[in-house]
Write a structure and sequence with these properties.
The protein is 5% helix and 36% strand. The protein is mostly beta strands.
Length: 151
């Protein structure tokens, strides 16, 4: 499935977002500027693009798994949400979770992935009681770590 998305280049020297491999869910976003991220530090990193998503779609900014695994670099509000009505530059709120090493982001580096998805508009119906389900109200961690720990 494809969807047409208007893209404005705010920095013509940066690569356009694209899939690393055919069939990938996300497209790579690139850094517009250099940044030094000390341990625990975060920064809003410009990408040099702005989008006009079609109504009924949103874009989600996800961390790059390699940066997270090798350097502890993630997206603070992962996934960051870009609504269809937003027309400003896409900014990525990067954070360095490594406790020791500073990480340098260089202009042009791939810093995050953008996934575009169709989204539903909820119509909430207030009810006195929710229908039952197998899970019920079981919350975080209620099934345990291993298959033998289920409650």
């Amino acid at each position: 499935m494809t969807v047409s998305v208007a893209l404005q280049r705010l920095d013509a020297d940066l690569p356009l977002p694209r899939q690393a491999r055919p069939g990938d869910a996300g497209v790579d976003l690139h850094s517009r500027d250099d940044h030094e991220l000390a341990p625990g530090e975060r920064a809003l990193v410009a990408t040099g693009i702005a989008l006009a998503l079609p109504e009924g779609y949103a874009a989600f900014v996800h961390p790059r798994s390699g940066l997270a695994a090798r350097h502890g670099i993630s997206v603070v509000n992962a996934p960051g949400t870009v609504d269809a009505g937003y027309r400003g530059e896409i900014l990525v709120n990067l954070i360095n979770t490594d406790p020791r090493d500073t990480f340098t982001v260089r202009r042009g580096d791939r810093i995050a992935q953008l996934v575009i998805q169709q989204v539903a508009t909820p119509v909430f119906e207030v009810v006195e009681e929710l229908p039952t389900s197998e899970r019920g109200a079981g919350g975080h961690g209620h099934t345990g770590i291993t298959t033998t720990e289920k409650d």
